[in-house]
């Protein structure tokens, strides 16, 4: 009797904790299962299904190509449908706000990503505990 009650209590506790921390629990599920969930459940942005917003051609026409990053040369053999939309939007906004070229905007975005991760523009870690030479 006590064993059965303790098992039921443990299962109830696990269910309540998983309900409370559902965004963390959902991150461990395969995307196929997450896609089956009802639409009223708020998913973290990492779990939202990818929605194609543009193609390589439209991104090339929007100025998201250069000699160093030539989209047209790779259109024929590439099975992907377009660039990462979030990254492309960040580069596009940098180009508009700072008035720089596509390559310069990509470099600025790359340096911002490095800075967010504690790395200086030369690629060296900013952490004083990091071992950079022996």
TrEMBL record:
<dbReference type="Pfam" id="PF09435">
    <property type="entry name" value="DUF2015"/>
</dbReference>
<keyword id="KW-0732">Signal</keyword>
<dbReference type="InterPro" id="IPR018559">
    <property type="entry name" value="DUF2015"/>
</dbReference>
<protein>
    <submittedName>
        <fullName>Uncharacterized protein</fullName>
    </submittedName>
</protein>
<comment type="similarity">
    <text>Belongs to the UPF0357 family.</text>
</comment>
């Amino acid at each position: 009797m006590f064993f059965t009650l303790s098992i039921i209590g443990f299962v109830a506790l696990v269910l309540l904790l998983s309900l409370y921390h559902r965004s963390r629990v959902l991150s461990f599920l395969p995307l196929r299962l997450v896609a089956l969930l009802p639409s009223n459940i708020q998913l973290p942005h990492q779990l939202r299904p990818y929605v194609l917003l543009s193609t390589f051609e439209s991104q090339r026409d929007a100025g998201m190509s250069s000699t160093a990053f030539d989209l047209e040369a790779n259109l024929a053999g590439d099975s992907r449908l377009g660039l990462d939309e979030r990254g492309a939007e960040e580069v596009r906004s940098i180009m508009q706000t700072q008035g720089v070229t596509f390559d310069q905007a990509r470099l600025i975005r790359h340096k911002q990503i490095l800075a967010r991760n504690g790395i200086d523009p030369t690629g060296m870690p900013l952490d004083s505990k990091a071992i950079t030479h022996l």
